[in-house]
Amino acid sequence: MKAIRFHEQGGPEVLKLEEVPDPTPGTGEVLVRVSAAGISYAEVQMRSGAMGAHPWFPAPPLPFTPGFEVAGTVAAVGADVDASLVGTRVVGGIAGGGYAELAVLPAAAALPVPDALDDHEALALFGQGTTAVGVTETGAPQAGEVVLVLAAAGGVGGLLVQLAKRAGATVVAAARGEQKLALTKQLGADLAVDYTETGWAEKVQAEVGQVHLLFDPVGGEISQAAFGLLAIGVGRAVVFGSASAQLPAVTPVDFLARGLRVSGFGPRVFVEPAYGARLRAEAFRLGVEGALKPVVGEVLPLSSAAAAHELFEKRGTTGKIVLVP
Q1: Which of 166, 250, 258, 292 counts the most CB atoms within 10 A of its CB?
Q2: Do residues 110 and 269 touch, judged by C-beta distance below 8 A?
Q3: Collapsing DSSP states into helix, strand and coil, what is residue 294?
Q4: What is the pLDDT of residues 142-171, one digit of tens each?
Q5: CATH says 2-113+295-324 is which class?
Q6: How far apart are CA 129 and CA 283, in angstroms?
């Protein structure tokens, strides 16, 4: 089969399309013919080596095939797995190996795709929907509050806009460029601002006043400006990434002086599988009901994995980026 591998960490160019042996499902496993492989922030960080900053995430064995989430059809099953699963549409997570024509998943991790969702939508809800639900629960937006979502046109950001609006908040979406701003408005944002423009934070303050809740996957100077908008004494933030490759430029002294609350989100879904499963189930429930609409952005052939990573790093995409074998 064909698969994407990297033999060393580095830029997107280290991703190569190679011919590798077909995998075989072992006991308790299923073989999935992949119809869609998702690209996530974690995979980009792993390829670049940036994931080494997270002690809870192990370094990949080289050569390595990235891809932590796939959707497709069960092609074969291993021992102790119900043979009737063959032909079932599933979506699931794996510890790498998704950028390929075939992937092996634990049978328990292969979740049936609801009829109401296509494979690309299911893939978006599986990972990014889980994150969005978890980030929202952590921040707990309330009716009447002002919620600022950074990177609001991304796969998680677009879902956060919808969830915050569903909670009754006034939603401020911050993104880059007119196309992305227009998308956030379509998703329900009350105000959309370009955070690459000088004075964007002052515009937010002039339009909506202080911010009660910040959802931040960006870091760096953008995060610093966003933290400055948080209301003294009641402001809170959920940090769940650093897409700028820089941590938020704020310190515990800043939190103390202004009485802010800051929470991180991420590792718990890995160390507590039951927690992740509950969030995922809620994301799928909302998706099936139509209350949460995942945005599927770029859909590229498997051979374009390097180009997809480059687009992701340059923040040139919206919604979920999907590779199709």
Answers
A1: 292
A2: no
A3: coil
A4: 999 999 999 999 999 999 999 999 999 999
A5: alpha beta
A6: 5
Model confidence over 212-252: pLDDT tens digits? Answer: 999 999 888 898 999 999 999 999 999 987 665 566 767 77
**Token pair for 36:** 């869609």
DSSP run (H or E) holding 277? helix 273-289
Say how many C-beta atoms besides its own lie within 10 A of residue 188's C-beta. 16
Decide the pairing of beta strands 102-106 and 170-175. unpaired
What are the extents of the domains in the chain?
A: 2-113+295-324, 128-268
- Dist CA 284 CA 92 (whole Å): 13
The dihedral formed by the CA atoms of 263, 278, 119 and 93, expressed in degrees to the nearest 10:
80
- The β-bridge partners of 250 are none
Q: Does domain 128-268 have CATH number 3.40.50.150?
A: no
pTM: 0.90
**What is the rounded distance in angstroms from the CA atom of residue 188 to the CA atom of residue 145?**
15
The CA dihedral of 68, 73, 78, 84, to the nearest 10 degrees, is 140
HSE, CB side, 13 Å, CA atoms: give it for residue 22: 11
Task: Report whether 88 contacts 74 (CB < 8 A).
Answer: yes
C-alpha–C-alpha distance, residues 194 and 72, integer Å: 37
Q: How far is CA 315 from the centre of its chain?
A: 13
Which tokens in the block code for residue 145? 């509050």
Please give the Cα distance from 194 to 130 (Å, whole number). 26
| Nearest CA among 214, 192, 223 for reference residue 145 | 214
